[in-house]
Amino acid sequence: MDKLIISVLGKDRPGIIAAISKSLYTLGCNLENVNQVTLQNQFAGIFIVLPPKDLSVEAIKQTLVTDSAGTGLHIHVDLADTDPNGDQAVDGEDFVITTIGPDQKGLVARFTKLIADAKVNVTNLRAVFEGGDTPEANVMVYEVYITPDTDQKGLFAGLRDKASELGLDISIQHKNIFQAINKI
């Protein structure tokens, strides 16, 4: 069987990852990747799993649902598209775009539209909005994958213009530089 992608959503509490990974281990699945985040007391986890060849998607889902009965977790299991290159060119580069400023409706929508229009993929997004006009309380960090055929100069100029229009401070850095500067 191909790899599976399992998403788990629900109210956060200790032990969710332990319970899901125990169920998968008991089924004989190999857990290859996990990414988890808690947003405003809500848990969201994504697991990439290689199951035993003789185990069906439905059997895995049923076991996870049964094992987590009464917890309020919502579990989805499906085949994963795990082409390591996906739609990304191998020779692209990762950049980090950070904005800080007052909260406004539509910030994420407006920035991701510019990024999408440039045919650039957002690979990770973290947005923390505390609300109000306190600039340092509202931060968005976009990690993007830029291919050589992207009009990088045009994209960055457009993002800077949009940030200025919205009263935001913006920083655009190659991911290697961002990591070197922010390394503790």
What's the short version?
The protein has helices at residues 16-26, 57-67, 107-117, 152-165, 175-181; strands spanning 4-11, 30-39, 42-50, 74-79, 93-100, 121-129, 138-146, 169-174.
Task: Give a structural overview.
The chain is α+β, with helices and mostly antiparallel strands. It folds into 2 domains: 4-79, ACT domain (Alpha-Beta Plaits, 2-Layer Sandwich), CATH 3.30.70.260; 93-181, ACT domain (Alpha-Beta Plaits), CATH 3.30.70. The chain has 5 helices and 8 strands. The protein has helices at 16-26, 57-67, 107-117, 152-165, 175-181; strands at 4-11, 30-39, 42-50, 74-79, 93-100, 121-129, 138-146, 169-174. It has a 4-stranded antiparallel beta sheet with strand order 2-3-1-4, covered by helices on one side. It is globular, with a radius of gyration of 20 Å. The termini are far apart.
* Number of self-contained structural domains: 2
**What is the C-alpha radius of gyration, as a whole number of Å?**
20 Å
Helical segment count? 5
Mean pLDDT: 89
CATH C-level class of the largest domain: Alpha Beta
Overall morphology: globular
Number of strands: 8
Strand content: 35-45%
Let me know the largest β-sheet: 4 strands, antiparallel
Query: What is the helix content?
Result: 25-40%
Strand order of the largest sheet: 2-3-1-4
